[in-house]
UniProtKB/TrEMBL annotation:
Top-level taxon: Bacteria
Name of protein: Glycosyl hydrolase 43 family protein
Record-level Gene Ontology MF annotations: hydrolase activity, hydrolyzing O-glycosyl compounds
Ribosomal protein is among the record's keywords: no
Hydrolase recorded as keyword: yes
Organism: Sphingomonas lenta
Region (Disordered): 134-159
Active site: D35, E222
Positions bearing the site annotation: Important for catalytic activity, responsible for pKa modulation of the active site Glu and correct orientation of both the proton donor and substrate: D172
Amino acid sequence: MIRGVAAGLLGLALASSAAGQQRALPTGSVFAGADPAAMVEGGRVFLYPTSGRGRLHSWSSTDLRSWAEGPALVRLADIRWIPTRERRQLWAPHMTAANGRYYFYYSVGPQEPYPAKIGVAVCDTPAGPCRDSGRPLLDGADSDDFRAKRPGGCSDDMRPTGSGRYGFEAIDPMVFVDPRSGRRLLYAGGSNGSTLRVFELGPDMVTIARELPVDQPPCFTEGAWMHERGSVYYLSYSSGHWDRSDYSVRYATAPSPTGPWTYRGAILRSGGGYKGPGHHSFFADPRTGATVMAYHRWEGQAGDGPYRGVRRQVALAPVRYLADGTIEPVELGR
């Protein structure tokens, strides 16, 4: 069984994704956007992307081919705790269910000249309406130096590094409910500092109870996603530059949701005419239980970047687990 916030809370069992269980997914992109976070409820898949329009909303589908855009869940202009001078962009949201309600986490960035922040709104349904909690959940300013950079570079033979503090960018929230302990864990961290931090949320889901120590997984940049399958915890994340061809999805496994990590390498890279795939999420196809990855990519771009002037596109890919529990790399354009 695979468990993650998109499925574990809603009782959807994610079976092993053998080819015979997968229904054909759309080969093209499904809508314009980036950073899609998935949630499944009532036979409907909800994706929550970055839209770049000063608001965040959902797209939903029952067949993974026809997608309907929902109303705004959060508007930048309506978040009163953000000072006017810091009202910049909303990014990379995540929705989860708890306490009979829905909690919508979102990023306020970029990092400079002011530290990024993570907020949370409380919603009646996965499609809203939502009411902001009225205060930031996490502020990048609590880092010793939020501008300090973790040493760059990435190779497939890298090993986890210690939890020593570098700069921290408070973006890219993801909430995972541990099926063993019941703890509700917030994963966060972006490219300014490229530092992953993990926090246990309070019972109300809008406060932090404590921070948990965690080693830094190799090649981590941003966009963490956690799920559990067969007593193995899978931490996947984006690596590289968001607007270049080196952007990719990598992962590590562990016996617990905070490590120690065994690095497994890349599962999604540029290829087949698509560039910079990343900032993904996993969910169960409600029709079959097969595992699917939602991610974004650049289309129609030449060279290694940086890419400008076009919007990223959200796409879907089947996820296949091998006999040893590792994930088969996805070949774009296959």
